[in-house]
Specification:
There is one protein chain. By secondary structure, this protein is of the alpha/beta class. The chain has eleven helices and twelve strands. The protein has a single domain, classed as TIM Barrel. Helices cover about 35% and strands about 15% of the residues. Strand 7, helix 5 and strand 8 form a beta-alpha-beta unit. The chain is globular, with a radius of gyration of 21 Å. The N and C termini lie far apart (about 50 Å).
């Protein structure tokens, strides 16, 4: 695989191949040896070429999540997200990265019908985006589909616990596993996904001790989000982590306050435009000589 660099003198995105090698699904799986992971896996979401460029040097995996429906398009949930959206944003993230494994979420309705439907959708996503893996939600019910895909050469990331595509069945986005029956089901779901061949599993929005149990009881690396520090890795929605939204889930640590900084920069720009302080001679073209 070629590393991509960008010549800012000619374009914001003109790729020039440079030797490089991407992280692979087997490499992610190999992070967990003997039931433990020495160095946790780093994953963040990315939906655009430029964000992928900025995140890629620091991440093992970039996830083109269907959360883009809310983050990019302002939709009320992930349910309306289409395959076309995922393919387009997946391709942008692949173009903007060279190191991290890029995985793309399978949107609601694109894989649940049958393993054959899932394969057709996943094949399209991989062909059109160039990504290296897909992610799909669901536990025991989706295990046969995960096995069907992996046996046909499609690396799969599982996703159990709080599954946003099932928000209408779950009744909201609250933490899962508060009752014993639900806690047992989350563990059983993770084991089923693991045995079906997923090379890693996202565990979202569950009580800490459940996430720890899942991590210790499956062979694939477990990537936590609102889960436990004992997981084999962590993922967050990048825009949440950067503080681009006023409200963020409890499990998010805000590493910056970009919303305020962007607003302040826009306010300064607006004031300079209105006072004619911008543009100056430095930003205008004049005859030479």
């Amino acid at each position: 695989m070629s590393k991509i660099t960008y010549d800012s003198d000619t374009s914001r995105a003109t790729p020039t191949p440079v030797p490089g090698k991407r992280v692979t699904a087997p490499a992610i799986l190999a992070h967990k040896a003997g039931g433990t992971t020495a160095e946790p896996i780093v994953m963040l979401t990315a939906y655009t070429m430029r964000m992928a460029q900025l995140l890629d040097p620091h991440c093992d995996m970039l996830l083109v999540g269907d959360s883009l429906g809310q983050v990019i398009y302002g939709l009320p949930s992930t349910i309306p997200v289409s395959l076309e959206m995922m393919c387009a944003h997946g391709a942008a993230v692949v173009r903007g990265s060279w190191h991290a494994l890029v995985a793309v979420d399978m949107p609601f309705g694109s894989y649940e019908g049958s393993p054959e439907q899932a394969f057709a959708s996943a094949a399209r996503v991989m062909k059109e985006s160039g990504c290296a893996a897909v992610k799909l939600e669901g536990g025991e019910a989706m295990a046969p589909t995960i096995r069907f895909l992996t046996e046909r050469g499609i690396p799969v990331i599982g996703h159990v616990g709080l599954t946003p595509q099932a928000v209408n069945m779950l009744g909201g986005y609250g933490a899962r596993g508060r009752g014993k029956a639900e806690a047992d089901k989350i563990l059983a779901d993770a084991k089923a996904v693991d045995q079906a061949g997923a090379f890693c599993i996202v565990v979202e929005g569950v009580l800490e001790d459940i996430a720890t149990q899942v991590t210790r009881n499956v062979s694939a690396p477990v990537i936590g989000i609102g889960a436990s520090a004992d997981c084999d890795g962590q993922v967050l929605v990048t825009e949440d982590m950067l503080g681009l939204f006023e409200r963020t889930p409890r499990f998010v640590k805000r590493y910056d306050d970009l919303a305020t900084r962007i607003g302040d920069a826009a306010a300064t720009y607006a004031a300079e435009v209105r006072s004619r302080a911008f543009p100056t001679a430095d930003q205008t073209y004049r005859p030479k000589g």
